Structure prediction request, 431 residues.
Amino acid sequence: MIDRGIMPEGFSESNFGMSPNNFPQNSEELFGFHASVLRSLGDAAQQESISLYLVGGSVRDLLLKRSIRDLDLVTEGDVTKNSMLLAQAIGAQIGHISQFGTVKLYTGETVIDMASARLERYPFPGSLPKVWQGDIQNDLKRRDFTINAMAVDLVPGRFGEFLDPFNGMNDLNASVVRILHSRSFIDDPTRILRAIRYETKLGFSMDSQTKAHAVNGVRFFDSVSGDRIRREFERIFCESHSELMINRMDDLGALNAILPCLKWSGSMHLASDLLRKKFGSSDPLHPVALLASELSKEASDSFINRLNMAGIWHRIVLDTIVLRDHVNCLDDQNVPNSRVYQILNGLAIPAVECWSVLVQSPRIIGRITEFLDRLRYIKPMLKGNDLINLGVPKGPDIGRMLDDILLARMDGFISSLAEEECWVKAKLNRK
Prediction:
């Protein structure tokens, strides 16, 4: 929640040293199909005497000629009031209004994230910041990296003026990820994970000082909540080459600092590449299973607890360990398809997929692949009512009979509706 009190000492326009420059490229050309909506927003802002800036990742990605769908805007003052005025002026719809001073607007296919300019102070390392309402100078000064600390004025008369107080454009041209000050990773260690993500996503590198501060800053992960770390992991795992980012986390000591038993081994890295080749794309849940694959049961519980996992993440870690303890059963040449199904069915599919590339045995790989490609999709042709009509008593016998039919189909004993009916009648006659 924004504290609308007095600015902390040391934060003022006079010591910020920012002077606007012309945007480094033709703004209309650079903004592309966003130019019209940005012009309209700027016109509306001027009519309402509202300040308005395009900021952060939107500016960075436009300068890199990367396509963007969402526009990040900052206004000075009451963001809820200003957003409503702007939305009404351009005919946009107001979406989510958060307690942290952000508002979503929707116009056509464009999503606009509006935030109030603010300044921040961190009471202690790794804490959530205390936030005050501020101006654009304060807002750029609080940001994580120089390449995200640029803004463009959208108000007519100043439209296209480029604000770059930390020489982010130079770092953008040099493909450098650089923090704004030496305490950045101490204040918020999750910025280390974001720096790693930007390195791989953009093809950039941390400068030597930023890297040194990252190595020093990982020790402060102890004070960061599991929820915050997990959210950064989720963002990393959604990237197309997340294995490179996880490897970088391991190299910088971030994994070990987050949880001493966590590591990213060569076999995990290779498995990640094999998964992409085998399944055609990166599943953001695969890294969860891979990170869990070499953990003891006790360590896997620590992994779950440290990241405060729930839902599918929690299930994948547990199922990865369960399958590791049973996967060698599939190497027996006498194991029928029905038994393969019983071992693998019900386990989280990303965990099963990971073990299809982690194991070395061709027989096990083949059986897991057979389950993924065929066995899990087999269903009985008969339904519950059909079984009742054939004489199967109502109740749990129906479910058991359907399960028996399914397993018999998997092992090739029956393959048609008529054979299912004959099979059921034969079983009933034997009772």
